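Sequence and fold
=================
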Amino acid sequence: MNTLRRTLKTLVQSLALVALLGGVSGCGVIFGAGAAVGMAAYDERGVDGVARDLRIHTRILEAWFQHKHALPAKIGLEVHEGRALLTGTIPDAQVRADVVRLAWTVDGVKDVINEMQPIDQSASDFARDGWITTQLKSRITLDREVLAVNYSVETVNGTVYLIGVAQSQSELDRVVAHARSLEYVRRVAPHVRVKGKT
């Protein structure tokens, strides 16, 4: 019971910090914490694994924020099983290098997947990318042959980045096919581990 309480406390604290950095209201944090705990029960990583990844996520954001306050707003970050997927558009090569270096300094990070693009993103591209991400999340959630809770999706300039754990290669193939079938998708970059494989 104490372990569960500590895990829940960590989830709530981490979500509060993420919300603080992202400007989310307090009510959203409480609702978000409850939803996160509920979803974590179905996630392949379990509640402890989700809490660990959320802690890593929060500490990476803290490192970026301390280095340069605007960084967390410019970079997409997904952490799954200690693997940090970095996305976004950062034209400055030195800033990209700093972002990667800072992510590696966080305890628990096993891999940093640098998918940051060196080109700017227009407002229309940003809106289109949001549409792609929303459509893909909806499609995999409604697909009964996909355990959607195990996937995180980021889209930048028409490239769909996936990270998570697939139950099988055929499930991953279905998710990739869903992504490729969407209008405006230029490329799909899966960083998904197939369950049972390392």
In short: The chain has a mean pLDDT of 84. Strands lie at 75-80, 83-88, 111-114, 151-156, 159-166, 187-194. The longest strand covers residues 159-166. Residues 46-67 form the longest helix (22 residues).
